[in-house]
Structures are given as structure tokens and as C-alpha cells.
Automatic annotation (TrEMBL):
The keyword DNA damage applies. CDD domains: ABC_MutS1. HAMAP family: MutS (MF_00096). This protein is involved in the repair of mismatches in DNA. It is possible that it carries out the mismatch recognition step. This protein has a weak ATPase activity. It comes from Algoriphagus boseongensis. Residues 693-709 form the DNA mismatch repair proteins mutS family domain. This is DNA mismatch repair protein MutS. PANTHER family: DNA MISMATCH REPAIR PROTEIN MSH1, MITOCHONDRIAL, DNA MISMATCH REPAIR PROTEIN MUTS FAMILY MEMBER. ATP binds at G619, P620, N621, M622, A623, G624, K625, S626. GO terms for cellular component: cytosol. Pfam families: MutS_I, MutS_II, MutS_III, MutS_IV, MutS_V. It comes from the Bacteria.
Amino acid sequence: MSKSKDGQETPLMKQYNAIKAKHPGALLLFRVGDFYETFGEDAVIASKVLDIVLTKRANGAASHIELAGFPHHSLDNYLPKLVRAGNRVAICDQLEDPKSVKGIVKRGVTELVTPGLSYNDQVLDTRRNNYLASIYFGKEKHGIAFLDVSTGEFMCAEGNPSYLEKLLQSFAPSEVIYSKAAKKTAAEWFKNDFITFHCEDWVYQYDFTYEKLKSHFGTANLKGFGIEELTSATIAAGAILYYLEETEHREVQHISSISRIAEEKYVWLDKFTIRNLELVFPQHEGGVPLIQILDQTVTPMGSRMMKKWMVLPLKEKQPIEERLNVVDFFYQNSSLIEEIIGNLKHIGDLERLISKVVVGRANPREINQIKKALKASLPIKELLKNQQNPTLKRLSDQIHPCEFLMEKIDRELEEDAPMLVHQGGVIKDGVDAELDEYRGLANKGKDFLVQIQQREIQNTGISSLKISFNKVFGYYLEVTHAHKDKVPQEWIRKQTLVNAERYITPELKDYEEKILNAEERMIALEQKYFQELVLEAGQFVTQIQQNARILGTLDTLISFAKVALANGYTRPKISDTETLEIKDGRHPVIEKQLPVGENYVPNDIYLDHDSQQILIITGPNMAGKSALLRQTALIVLMAQMGSFVPASFARIGIIDKVFTRVGASDNLSKGESTFMVEMTETASILNNLSDRSLVLMDEIGRGTSTYDGISIAWSIVEFLHNHQNFKAKTLFATHYHELNQLATDFPRIKNFNVAVKEVGNKVIFLRKLKEGGSEHSFGIHVAQMAGMPNPVVFRASEILGHLEKDKAVKEKKETFKSVPKNNFQLSLFEMDPKLSEAKKLLDEVDINAISPIEALLKLHEIKKKME
Ligand SMILES: Nc1ncnc2c1ncn2[C@@H]1O[C@H](COP(=O)(O)OP(=O)(O)OP(=O)(O)O)[C@@H](O)[C@H]1O
């Protein structure tokens, strides 16, 4: 097939190569007859990813080409697998009916599916947005844009690298595009975190992209979207529109607007904070992110909205209060929750369905689902209208019932219409007289066939005679060989099977023509009416998109109320003061994971600008310091998302930035955090502080030697306290009890410790935060708890004792020479009394004299001693 006998490239292969050359970097699915074929490298990848057979075809004299294909009807099954494996897939279809063409069929790429651009239900996760991001690396500012083509959501922003990195982390796009010239920067930025693609440099030009956006939205400028002045964001966003065209996504009217991600509206979370607080994604496999606790939504829109709210907590009091008022309302009127949820459950993925309508991919079932969703939104609209809550009333007003569309679908589309229009049974009776007539004819014709069958059974006496249909002969009469002799002469034999014969008659053919004609016309008319319905639905894009947004918002707020009721959360008080006051705060995730019978120990936190700006929190490993730090940030963020919080009381003086830094060694397992990184990131915190920042520092300085670490930690705390402009509220967890000294020197630094109790040589964790510093670290006790061999534990205690003594010595510039050398082998027995007793018993044994039974008894004795 690849080359003709004379070694020339076949016309088909020529066509393939030409199309392939137009889409470099894409895996080409090339439609040949009923198959999608892949060749060469593509075939190798496809066979591996899809687990399909790889064959080789001769390709001229000495070479061959790999080939792998699958039936065209399996596309929906195989395409998502290829895309999820990170491939860009170009689908090349036959653009003409092969029957009506002589020679080679015209072919062309009808869609280029990339990880970031897909409508396919199998590729998409209903509970997550599927964003394509575009980044413009500018001289002054970088620009970024996000598009979810499956919902039509389009956003952009610009700023410094750390802002963009934070947005990338928050929205976790499935694919990132950028300009070729920025290849090197992009490689440094993205490492292997994202699937990327680069466009030609001329795409990332201001004039071109500005025009692209204007012509897409049909506006004279971009002022209405609030992005006129954002040059870098415009470039990034316009490049996305270009990329859509490049990938044959031309029906994109559902992208009806672009919004600016308003930095000033949302809390600044640095990328480390998003990861460390595990808001949406777990940090490690098996971890539980906060969203898993808070997301009880029942619609895909709600779930996607919740994720957005989590990474973009608000920092303006009024919109936070508005959300809290609604949550409070449902909290107080919990009987409404189930009623509304009952209706929300019928909404489905309205947002993605309407996108499919626009791009011409909606099938009859999906149009029916739009009707169901619109129907279910009516009782919700009614319910909300009657409540004593202004926000709910407003939401009710904004739900558009789209009655005209709903009624039209109801009137015209069969309730149980099939997925595919050409299967028939899509349009209801009574919509069109001609359609009804054809349908009647087709059905009547079929009734008549039954009558013929009955008549012929009687006439011939062949009781098993039946009339069937196949594509080759049309309708035929089938008679088993046993009855062959009874067949009338005028029947025309068409086919002989192993145990039956098939016949046709002129009468049968006559009806066949009538039936087939009628069916063909019936389907053509059904298709026409269905297309009209889809077009009509397309007229309601804006209203339906708005409905989807409102129902998603409602779903999210109800989810907050549900979770608050189930977990005993309270409404936070949002204040303009600088005070952060939490009573009986809990960690929303850890409290759900404790073993049965164990209760989470609640703790209070108080921070302000006057007397308690910085808390130095000491305590042994495992005491609960990290949990306390994280729960404080989570409570603040939950409150500013509009959720109730796990505490008996919370007054939240609005926070505008949350910074988190965890000491290097906590991250060593990921192999990415060195002391240098720790210090760079800490520096970036200190350079970006604000008066309303919340800073969480967990074991900063532990990535270096003790004295280095203490000194660095010490000076960071001093810096935070003495900053000229900002009093950033800070929780500083540390092993270095030496830092307790700071509280005596600075008025707004206070010492706290997470309490533990020592009983004998054991440590009991009380998990309670108490005022005051702690005397020493408890690392050695924790080592013991972790099952460290006793000799190691004893030896560590001994060394610690000497080192502590040494500190005094050190001040006189001496070294740690007082720590005595240890002979580990010898001391093993000496240091553990049980072991030394066992040794004594063993020494007493004379191996040459002991009988097997005595040996067993001795062993038993030794074992007992060791228990
Ligand atoms: N208030 C609490 N109530 C009940 N259990 C808690 C509480 N705080 C923490 N824990 C439990 O203790 C474990 C250890 O807590 P955490 O990691 O916060 O300790 P840490 O003091 O930061 O230790 P390290 O210094 O080793 O990081 C947590 O995983 C959690 O299961």
C-alpha cells in the first residue's frame, strides 16, 4: 500500500505524507475505509498505548513501515487513551463519500485533540475543569490565559513570575502553550510538570493577538472585558484563539467573554502554600486534600466552582459576607437543602452540554438532558424566590427558564430518543405531517410484511417461514431445507445457507421499495428537525451558561452548609481589624482521619498587631506543631472562601497573603528541596510581606547545622518583628528552644509550646497549645517510640548529656571533645539489662555437654527473660 510495485509512493501514501507534514508533533489517525490507521512512529506509539497489534508493511525494496489501526467506531474508546497518554492527536477523515468518487478520496484533518483541548467525555473529568494555558514571557510583565474549551470559560492575567507560577499551580492546566523563542525559559519553568507546546513567534505579538480577540468577540476594543490595558495578558489570550484555529476548533461561539483574574480581589497564596496546605491536590500519594472534605456538591458545575473558590479565596469583606449569609441561611433552614439538592441532581453537566450544542456535537439524548436540566431549574427558581435572603432572591431572578426552548424540545423530541439521529425515532409524531406520513408508510409497510408472512404460512403450510432483512438482498423469505419442496414455483431463490434457503418475490420487492423509501425520507426529515432544535438551543447559549453558573454557585454554597452541619463548624466573624482569634480550632482534614476513639484536640490561636504578632511554637517532633500551623491557615482561608470553619469561635481580621515555608528536610524525600531553595523561598516571603499577611514558618533553618539554623531562624523572626511597614502575623514552629529567648527581647513575640507529658521514660502527646517555651527537644523519646533499638536510644541520651554540658565548654572556644568515644559492639550488651542477662545465661551453657531437650528449655528461659 505504501509504495507501488515500481517503488513509487502510492497516491494514498502521498496524501498521508502531505497531511502528516502539516501537523508536526501530532499523532495522525488516518481514516481508510472503516479503519483509522497509524503509520511509522505513530503506529509504534499507538500500538503501545492502545495495546493493538503492530504490523509491518513492505515499503519499497528494502524497507518497511509500521502500521497499526482500529475500527472507526472504536474512536471514542481509543482517542481518550491516546490523549491521556499526553499525545496530540490529529483526526484525519474522508471528506467525500468513497462510493461517489473515482480514484483517491479527499481527506483532511477535522480535529486536533490535545490534552488541553477536548470535548470528549472520556477525556474530561466532570468534576474538574480542563484548562489550556498560554504564557507570554514579556520583558516587563508576563501574561497568562486559561481556556476551558469544554465550558467556554476564558480568563487572563498578568504579573511577575511568582504570580504566574501561583496561577499555574492553582488552575493545573492540562497543557501549556508558549512562543518558540521562549523555549529555554519555558523548559526551566515547566520542567516536567506540564504538557507543553510551542507556537511560532509571530503568534505572540500584540497587534495580531489584540485583533484576534476583537474579531472573535465582535467588539471595537477590549475595554468591556477590563483587559484593554493588559498588554501581556492580551498576547497570551489571543494566542489561545489562534491555537484553536490551528487545531481545527472553529465553532467556538460559546467562548462568549473573557475575564481578568483580578489579583486585588483574591488572597495571595504562594505556590508553596497551595501545595503545602493541600487545598485541592494531595502533596503525597494517598494524602487527603481539603477539597475532599468540603466538596459535597452534586453537579459538575458546583464541583468545578468549588475548586476555583478554594484556590481564589476572597479578601473583600462584602462578598465574603454575602456567601456566608447564604451558607448560614441553609445552615438554619436545613430542610431546604435536601429539597434543592433533589432538583440539582437532575441538572447534569449543563455547562458542557451547551458547549457541545455550539460546536455541533450534541446528540438527541444530550438535547433531552438540557430540557431536563431546564425543567429541574424551575422549582429551584421558585424555591429561592420565596426565601428571606437577598442573594437567593437575586440568584432566582437570574435563572432563565428558557421556556421557549424547553417547550420546543418537549414538543418535538422523543423522550427516549437514541444517541444517534440516523437510528430514527428521534422526532415525535405530530411535529410534521410529511414525517408522520413516511413513518406511517414505513410502519404500515412492516405491518403488511407481517401479513404477507402470515398469508404465505397458510398458503404453503410452512409454519417456520419468516420474512427477514439484510443489506444485500433487502427483504426475503426464509425456508428451512426440510420444507424446501413446499415453496411455490414463482418465488425466486437468492441464497442457499447450510440449513435454509432464501427467496424473494416481486410483491416483497415492491413493498421493500416503499418501506425503504419511506424510511430514508423519514430519517432525512428527523435529521432536519433535530438540526433545527440544536440551532434553536444554540440561541440560548448565554442564558444557559448563566444558569449553569448560578446553579453551580448554589450547589457550592449548599455544600458548605451541609459540611458545616455534618462536622460541627461555626460561622466565622469577618472583621476589618487586624485581629485573628480562633477558639477551639481544629484541622478539618486530620480530625476526620483519626482512628476511632481518638478525638482531635482543639486549640486556640490569637494574633494581632499590638501584643501578639509572632508566636514561637516549640514542642517535640510529632507534638502537633505543623498541624496547628496548617489548621490556622486553613481556617482563615475557609472563612474567606465563604465557608463555616472548624472552631467554636473565629474572628478573622481579613488576611490578604498567606505564605508558608517548611524547613528543607521535610521535603527531602521529594529530592527537590535543598537548603538553598529553602532560603530563596524564605527570602521571597520576606520581600513580599504585607500588613495583613499570615506567615507560617515550620522548622525554618533545619536544613543546615544547628548553629547556622538557629541564627538564621533568629534573624528571620527579628526581621518580621521589626519590619518598618508591616506587622505580618506569624506562627513560627521550631525545635530550637533557644529561640524562646526572643520573647524576652521583643514585645510582640510570645512563646507557646505544644504540651507533652513525660511519664517514666515515655512521652504522652497532649496536643494542647500552652503559653510559655519548652526546655528541651524530645527527639530521643520519639526515636524510642518509633522502635529504635534500645542501645541507640541510650547512646543518644548519653551524647546529648555531654553535648549540653559542652555548650558551656564551647563558649570558651573548645570543641565537643568531652563526648566519650563509644565501642558499639561491646556496649550493646552492657547498655540493655535484658540483653546482658541473656548473655549471662548463654555464657553458662556448655555446648558440648547439653542435651537437645536441655537446649530447648534454656532457649525458653532466655526468651522469657527477654519479654
Ligand atoms: N490537635 C491534635 N489532636 C489530635 N491529633 C493531632 C493533633 N495535632 C496533631 N495530631 C496528630 O499528630 C501527628 C503529628 O503532628 P504534626 O506533624 O503536626 O507534628 P509536628 O510537631 O509538626 O512534628 P514534626 O516536628 O516531626 O514535623 C499528626 O499527623 C496528627 O495525626
